[in-house]
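Suppose a colleague, Dr. K., hands you the sequence of a protein chain of 156 amino acids and asks what its three-dimensional shape might be. Before reaching for any lab equipment, you can write down a predicted structure in C-alpha cell form. Begin with the sequence itself:
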Amino acid sequence: MFCTNCGASNKRDSKFCVNCAESLGEVQVAERLPRAGGLKKASYFKKVDFLRTFFDFSFSQFVGPKIVKFLYGLSLLFAVLLALSLIVAGFNASTLLGILALLIVAPLTFLLTVMSSRVLLEVILVIFRMADRVENIRLINIEENPESRDDIQWNV
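The predicted structure, expressed as C-alpha cells, is then:
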C-alpha cells in the first residue's frame, strides 16, 4: 500500500505510514486529484477525515499523528505570540530593553519554544508508533500460535 501523503511504500496491514506517520485508514484517495480544483477537494477530505477520527467510538484509528500536526501548528503560533509579547513588554519598559528583547531574548525564546514543542510531539509520535507495532506483533502472535483447547484444564 502506498501513502497518499508522501508516496512511501507500506505493508498492506499498516495503520500508519512508516515515512510520514499519516493514517492509512479507510479514507484513502487512490489517485491524485487534478490541479485545478483538486487542492480544495483534497483539503476538504483531510478535514473530514480529521474530524471523523475524533468521533470514532470504535477507536479503530489512532488520532495521534493527526493531532500532533495540529498541536505543532498551535505551538508555532504560541511561540510567535510569546516572542512578540516579549518585544512589546521590552519596549514598554525602556528602549534599551526593547532592543535587547528584539535582538536576543525574543529569537532565543522562539527557538527554544519551537524546539521543545517539536521534541515533545515527536516523543508522543514515537509512543503511538510503538503502540501500533506492539499491537501488530500481538496480532501476528495470536494468528501464528492459537491456543489449543487440549492444554486447558477444565474445572467442572
